Input
Amino acid sequence: MGSKYKKFSFQNVNTYSIKNRFSKVQINDFAKPVKTQDTIEVLIKSLPNILIGKDFKDFINQYKKAVSQKKFVIWMTGAHIIKCGLSPVVIELMKDGYINHLAMNGAGAIHDVEIAMWGITSEDVATGLKDGSFGMAKETADFINFTVAENSGNDMGYAEVLANKLLNVKAPHARLSLLASAYQLNIPISLHPALGTEIIHQHPSLDGAAFGEKSLLDFKLFTDSVSQLTKGSMVLNVGSAVILPEVFLKALTVVRNLNYEAYGLYTAVFDMIRHYRPAVNVMQRPTQESGKGYYFIGHHEIMIPLLAGALRSG
Output
């Protein structure tokens, strides 16, 4: 018994030779196996010249070119890089001239101070939330809040007063502090908090007026660094999903409003998942007429050492 339904015929479709077709993948672009004795430079070159593998190699080349031409490089980071133990990697990049300004969100201050002063950080939020003890460490809040309040009225920003304090009290682990290290290297570092998002805001030691004053000074410091961006400069956003992409967009529009040549930028986002604001505010909008934006997804504790190794190789 046959089917009662009519079937379409492909008998007369038009075909062509694969030899005449444009193909996006060619064997010359395939990955190459690496050997035990191979260097990081060989590893990077061995990546497939396809999709993100190609993007990563292109980005590394642009970054190296920017540094060799003394273009300005801004790193914006969430606090996660500190919690992941990556501060030594970032500090070495600062020492070697791969970062000209380091911007962090407000949580960066908390984790950096705790590491510098006590060598520990990152509490168990779920456990502390049950009884209301989350974020109630007195020493952390008092160190930051009192330092900010003591400097009320001077022209030092949020990051600068904390860095200076860590060095003055001889913090036991200051060598692992992004704040202290940047300050010692004369690299501008800024903190960009959002009131109500950090544990120090729930303590009675917070001076709101001083906190706002220091935060605004850091935004002005950051905007000054953005004004130094020119064609071929680099802007990286590492793990900040909202705050720093928004801060960057506002600073960029200010300097362009004042006719600074902050165009032709190369921007990159490094994060564990794809977020809306980093995609549009860092990768797409600032480079829509010139330059190029990249987005690399992967765990920071793997991607950032890989990035640092690739930059310092060869």
In short: The radius of gyration is 24 Å. The CA atoms of residues 137 and 199 lie 9 Å apart. The mean pLDDT is 95.
